[in-house]
């Protein structure tokens, strides 16, 4: 039987499986069927992303990220804060190095006012068209996503691809309608996460997000990083900004470390929902004998 933890970061919710113990019952390969069943809001536990904590030779842990449909993601900012808090409590430490498919992340406890938060160094913003990736060579600061797009997009990778569009009124955008079209725009060979953003003031932005492989979510941490970076690249903000999403805010700092991509620090809260045990039949889907779909 496999135990799970349910957490969320600003309403972006996660089922977390801890596979550090070799006897956890969780195999090396997670099938699309197993991941999408657990993520299903009617037939499973329900989540935007399934996160699996594994041992790492290079860091304190390895974090595997699977979207609701079972597809693999390279980054998950809100999920990183949740996993970091859980593992730091477990190991009784205040800092953690986390390896993911795309990068190495450093997390630590942080406090703003009386709020206990987690800060994650999400690494460099990847600004070249090959890094996003885009389908053809072009400037990533003004990308034409076609007739469905409300504005030219700023594109960058935060370990996963993000397109950010600044508009006058985020509430006026039919994100349900344009989100899937822009996610699948020809310019994105790996598809993209789509953020629509309104400037509230020089250091505050309202963001709505359509996540790749999921749809509209209440918050997207890597998306908020992309928004902070995009706002600075467009000259709309300094290096520090608050990004207000449907589920709440994170603070983004795009630090200049002398490299083009700098390093992006995301600070925000985590929430524990509960834990439980997967039924035998569902646990069996996570066993070692099931090949990756
Ligand atoms: N919710 C996440 C992003 C998860 C991955 C994304 N849907 C993708 O496929 O790139 C976050 O908080 O960053």
Automatic annotation (TrEMBL):
Its EC number is 5.1.1.7. SUPFAM superfamilies: Diaminopimelate epimerase-like (SSF54506). It holds the Pfam family DAP_epimerase. Keywords: Amino-acid biosynthesis, Cytoplasm, Isomerase, Lysine biosynthesis. It is an enzyme of class 5 (isomerase). The record marks 162, 211 as: Could be important to modulate the pK values of the two catalytic cysteine residues. The keyword Cell wall biogenesis/degradation does not apply. InterPro entries: DAP_epimerase_AS, DAP_epimerase_DapF. It catalyses: (2S,6S)-2,6-diaminopimelate = meso-2,6-diaminopimelate. GO terms for molecular function: diaminopimelate epimerase activity. Its main location: cytoplasm. PROSITE patterns: DAP_EPIMERASE (PS01326). GO terms for biological process: lysine biosynthetic process via diaminopimelate. Belongs to the diaminopimelate epimerase family. Homodimer. Catalyzes the stereoinversion of LL-2,6-diaminopimelate (L,L-DAP) to meso-diaminopimelate (meso-DAP), a precursor of L-lysine and an essential component of the bacterial peptidoglycan. This is Diaminopimelate epimerase. The gene is dapF.
């Amino acid at each position: 039987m496999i135990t799970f933890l349910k957490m969320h970061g600003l309403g972006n919710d996660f089922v977390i499986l801890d596979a550090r113990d070799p006897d956890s019952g969780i195999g090396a390969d997670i099938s699309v069927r197993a991941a999408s069943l657990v993520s299903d809001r009617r037939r499973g536990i329900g989540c935007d992303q399934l996160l699996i904590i594994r041992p790492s030779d290079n860091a304190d842990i390895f974090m595997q990220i699977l979207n609701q449909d079972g597809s693999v993601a390279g980054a998950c900012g809100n999920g990183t804060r949740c996993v970091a808090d859980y593992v730091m409590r477990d190991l009784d430490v205040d800092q953690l190095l986390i390896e993911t498919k795309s990068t190495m992340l450093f997390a630590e406890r942080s406090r703003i006012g009386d709020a206990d938060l987690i800060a994650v160094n999400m690494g460099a913003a990847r600004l070249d068209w090959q890094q996003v990736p885009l389908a053809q060579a072009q400037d990533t600061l003004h990308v034409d996503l076609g007739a469905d797009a409300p504005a030219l997009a700023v594109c960058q990778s935060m370990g996963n691809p993000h397109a950010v569009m600044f508009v006058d009124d985020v509430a006026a955008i039919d994100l349900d309608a344009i989100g899937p079209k822009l996610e699948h725009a020809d310019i994105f060979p790996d598809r993209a996460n789509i953020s629509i953003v309104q400037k509230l003031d020089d250091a505050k932005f309202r963001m709505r997000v359509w996540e790749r492989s999921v749809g509209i979510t209440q918050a997207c941490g890597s998306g908020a990083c992309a928004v902070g970076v995009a706002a600075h690249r467009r000259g709309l903000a300094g290096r520090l900004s608050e990004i207000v999403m449907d589920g709440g805010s994170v603070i983004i700092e795009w630090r200049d470390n002398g490299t083009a991509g700098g390093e992006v620090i995301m600070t925000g809260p985590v929430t524990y929902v509960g834990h439980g045990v997967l039924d035998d039949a569902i646990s069996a889907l996570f066993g070692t004998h099931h090949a990756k779909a």
